[in-house]
Design a protein that fits this description.
single chain, Chemotaxis protein chec, Surface presentation of antigens (SPOA), 6-stranded antiparallel sheet, 10 strands, 26% helix, elongated
Length: 304
């Protein structure tokens, strides 16, 4: 690819993703979020990373499918991680980042990825994400070995919320990205038949691209999900029993559960608690009336 083609491709794709991310983050945090970015191309991603101040909270993942896999590194200031978690669960920000905040960061990423997949077609598996990790990076070598010299991009992404700016750094690289140096033009005496064609291919980002419509522009992608089956289970309670006690059970035996009478039942969707409810009778059939939805904080506790 020619010089600046990688940067221009990233910019085009960010222009398309920005409305999706702005709306998705605003809905998740219940506050206005505006995103802007500054992009620079680098011939040595490890050297560029070494100029960043550490420690930082990081998300690392790979996007796309082989052989077009792209590596990503997102570096967050701890202030943003603490604030974002607090906005999501409706609490005051904590003083230090712990495991729950790292799980929260992955939950934010996964929710935004889901919004992108619904809003933008992904025929080339560009939004396929693998090996998502969150943690504290103490030095550049924790992310990229110092002897590696991948060509890539660095983007400084500004998140503005209620007149407060947070800056996130995004590094993306691939061993397949190579820049073709532009040669000076030959004099007119050089025959055109001696000049071979230059193979130029557009760059595609696994987690940062697409060519569909913006988030609110069409319901076609959401309608694709309406026929997906989800298993809904209503759970009375659980308890553990010894095998010897289980063998003693017979017709008419009573199993006592720890839950008290009148407590709400758990409603699970695909094995995860989604809500609580109470039993009702509808035309001689059992039903469940939802009395409470599980909060984002409780969902985060179940991530593992």
């Amino acid at each position: 690819m020619n010089k600046n083609e990688l940067r221009n491709s990233y910019q085009r794709q960010m222009d398309e993703l920005r409305p999706v991310l702005n709306k998705g983050l605003a809905d998740l945090f219940q506050r206005s979020i505006m995103i802007s970015e500054e992009i620079e191309e680098t011939t040595n991603i490890a050297q560029t990373l070494s100029q960043t101040e550490f420690p930082k909270i990081a998300l690392m993942f790979q996007s796309g499918v082989q052989p077009e896999t792209i590596s990503h590194l997102l570096l967050f200031p701890s202030e943003f991680v603490l604030s974002a978690y607090a906005w999501m669960v409706g609490e005051d920000p904590a003083e230090e980042v712990d495991e729950s905040h790292l799980d929260g960061l992955k939950e934010i990423f996964n929710q935004m990825l889901g919004q992108i997949r619904m809003a933008i077609p992904d025929d080339s598996s560009r939004f396929t994400v693998n090996n998502l990790q969150a943690g504290l990076i103490e030095k550049p070598e924790d992310a990229i070995p110092g002897d590696e010299s991948y060509h890539g991009l660095k983007a400084k992404i500004k998140l503005n919320s209620e007149n407060h700016d947070f800056f996130v750094e995004h590094f993306a690289w691939s061993d397949r990205w190579e820049i073709i140096q532009e040669e000076p033009q030959e004099s007119a005496s050089v025959e055109s038949s001696n000049v071979g064609p230059v193979n130029v291919e557009p760059a595609e980002f696994g987690g940062l691209g697409g060519n569909g419509q913006a988030y609110g522009g069409s319901t076609r992608n959401i309608e694709m999900l309406l026929d997906v089956d989800l298993e809904i289970t209503v759970e009375l309670d659980r308890k553990s029993m010894l095998v010897s006690d289980l063998l003693k059970l017979g017709k008419g035996s009573i199993i006592e559960f720890p839950k008290s009478a009148g407590e709400p039942l758990d409603i699970l969707v695909n094995g995860r608690k989604f809500a609580e409810g109470e039993v009702v009778v509808i035309d001689d059939k059992f039903g469940v009336r939802i009395t409470q939805l599980v909060s984002p904080k409780e969902r985060l506790k179940k991530l593992a």
